[in-house]
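Before the break, one more example. Copy the sequence into your notebook; we will annotate it together after we see the structure.
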Amino acid sequence: MLKFLLRRLANSIVLVAIATSLAYFLAAATLHPRSNFEGRNPPPPPAVVDARLNELNLNDKTPIVHRYTRWVKGVLHGDFGETWDGVSVNAEMGRRIGVSLRLLLIATILGGVLGVLAGAWGAIRQYHVSDHAITLLSFVILSTPVFVLAVVLEIAAVGFNNAVGAKVFEYTGEFTPGLSGGFWAHLGDRLQHLVLPSLTLILAEIAIFSRYQRNAMLDVLGSDFVRTALAKGLPRRTALLKHALRTALIPSATLFAYNFGLLLVGATFTEKIFGWHGMGEWFVQTIQASDTNAVAAITLIVAIFILIASFLQDIVVALLDPRVRVN
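Here is what the structure looks like once it is written out:
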């Protein structure tokens, strides 16, 4: 098992390096940081602009390979460079990465667990009312774009707050600026702001995982080893949990790593709509500002996130499937 995991980790690291390099070359070839300076009134002298762009390693007159080499050397020393306006990419990323991780971790854990449970329950109760209800709700959510779902939840929160005459749900920002009170007051305020954006991503995750888990569970329930276990007198609950569910979890675990990339896209829309200043919002801003260094740095961090998700998926699959450990 250890050999298998190390081999997969090495492959993932190579893929991260390739993806980040391609993203840097694409950004360096298509984005134009010079326009941020030339758009000023009055525009700075060309020599001043060139000197500043050289300092930031953003000069389009410098060969891309030279810029890439300089950027990689900085990354290997833990320095992602500066944005076009001279802000440290490390500092900005450090501020925003925690914001995004709050949404991503909550949505991944709760959405994945609840989706698996809903899918397994739907398979066990096939064609019952609960199965039809889960299927209907899942397809409604799947057919609704994330940004539409976020807006609907926001409207519903406003209506609920007006109905009860209190601000139960907060729908703008990560916290209330200038809030007075102690630790518990600030904690409660952050939780109020966290509910709606987290719920947006959680619902999408539940819908996706419930469909995959239901199909996988139905395939396993008809397998010979499950029928044999029941025929030998094994309690139905034990047969379902120990044999059926464990085997049916393998496809969902494989889906986890691939779905994590889609979750990052959904988080981008969610952050913009609810006013969370995370990595997704920053990524949109850096593209608009033609900021090559920041775009490449964000791509690297996202690739690392997906690498970690893929590695965790490999561990889970290896624990669930003995054949992986043997090979």
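The mean pLDDT is 86. Residues 2-19+94-326 form a domain with the MetI-like fold fold (CATH 1.10.3720.10). Try to locate both features in your own notes.
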